Amino acid sequence: MDEPGGVERLEGVGSAFAAARDGIDTILRDRGLRRTSPEATAESLLRGAHASAVLAGSSSTLDDVRAGEGDPLAQAALRVSVELLGLVPVFARTPIQALARLHALAAAGSVPDDRVGRPRDPEAAARLRSTVELLGADRPALMTAALVHAELATAEPFGSADGLVARATERLVLVSSGVDSKSLVVPEAGHLALRAAYESNLRAYADGGRRGLQAWLVYCSEAYAAGAEASPLRDR
Length: 236
Hints:
The chain is mostly helical. It is about 65% helix and about 0% strand. It has one domain: Orthogonal Bundle (Fic-like fold). The radius of gyration is 16 Å and the shape is globular. The mean pLDDT is about 90.
């Protein structure tokens, strides 16, 4: 990854994220955030689990996930979603521990027990530590969420279920930063709605360089706007 310092100064990035944040804030405010119920949060998490599973290759439907059924990828994404908000305090204190737990949930039964929650090698462990360092930077939280997502998805530090972990971590950043404290936006659904762009921009990010970084960030601003539109609050 090219050094992400000064990402706000990349052409079009700052304004794109400002617009995305305004859109999120408008939906949360106008739909009555203070009156939202735990059921709305649960539905958002379910929609996110389904979308993340499909992006990972699942063929299960949202109804399958809502019923607690579906293929192994759907089950993995559902396990992650059930525990996700409970990991917010852990994520704030020791983010690497939270990421290890996310991987343990996502990869359970698909990798040997001694590989669950562990980076695949020393180089991956170092990359994971550098990814966590992104959380402490002074930049808009939406940008941090996008950068952490891309790092985890492209570096694949665990060697399995990294996409599920990346998308869950993205949501953790949005919740823990206060952008979406009740987890009502569905960023995973935004990525699924823009799947071709999601996958191509992750590849561009992985190739390195400021151009790939810029393209990924501008893309994410669009995906977050789409994720806000996918919120259960829009059903009202």
